[in-house]
Amino acid sequence: MSHSDPRAARLALALDGGPPQGRVAAFAPRAGEDISALRADAEVITGFFPDAEAFAARGHVTRVQPEGRYGMSLVCLPRARAAARDLVARALAVTDGPVLVDGQKTDGIETLLRAARARVTVPEPVAKAHGKLFRLEGADRAAFADWHAAPRRIAGGFVTRPGVFSADGPDPGSQCLDAALPDRLPPRVAELGAGWGWLAARLLARAGLEELHLLEADHAALDCARANLSDSRLRFHWADATRFAPERPFDAVITNPPFHRDRTGDPGLGAGFIAAAARMLSPTGVLWLVANRHLPYEAPLAAVFREIDERPGTRAYKVFRAARPVAARDMTAGRTAPRTARRRPARTA
Questions:
Q1: What is the CATH number of domain 152-344?
Q2: Is the pTM above the cut of 0.85?
């Protein structure tokens, strides 16, 4: 067990009497975290595809939703408060024994602990490494029934859920990208990181589109997209966009990629989307990408596309059209930046 992992250290202290008996579940642990103190065969309940894939590779049974009853559960706190409360309520609903709730101070564990103590008696938590782990009992489930988060309907009639990206309305970056896109699209298009479907609805209204593939790692967001969109041209994929391999190349890829891991900014995420887009495209395919102005995506674009054109954006966002992706054989040969790659200046409106 790695005690450099704060969650592993707190879990080891909470379970110093040994692992529990019976079925055990871990709700929303992140890839790379050590939950071995809980039990080597703990089931992992997560809707985030890269995490599900990582724990499945380590031998865990992974599920999007819990199945049956559990003797003990661990809740790994997400950032969004409503999503965190929903996760606690879901775990309590299917657990007969204790539910351990763990998180860093930056995740809001202190606020959640105070809210729980306002309802039930909570034993003294384990405090270590800028976080806490506290214990609830499955018998307390009725006291937290109102923590279940229902889908919500927002402007435009769209359905979202707490915890999905930009749940209150369309992201300004996606709106900027929509304004920059042409009125006509090629036949076979993919949107990477499609979320709950706002931009996809805008794409479906354009001429020329015959197939639109929506790739999204968050299962809850993809469920919202399914509820929001009804069109025979749609194909839904619960997938890690950076690792997805289409059956046939796409004519265009459109993306507003993420750039945070939890609260930490990570431009490498967007760079991964750019490289994946180049692999997915046909030789004549085109990438359309929007990004916050401070994100350094020019070099990743130049590494995998021969033609890069910055289009008019906004003060906060920049939009790129990238064409002529580097062939896979060129990348395999170690050519990190094509000799003919160039970045055109932004066009004026």
A1: 3.40.50.150
A2: yes
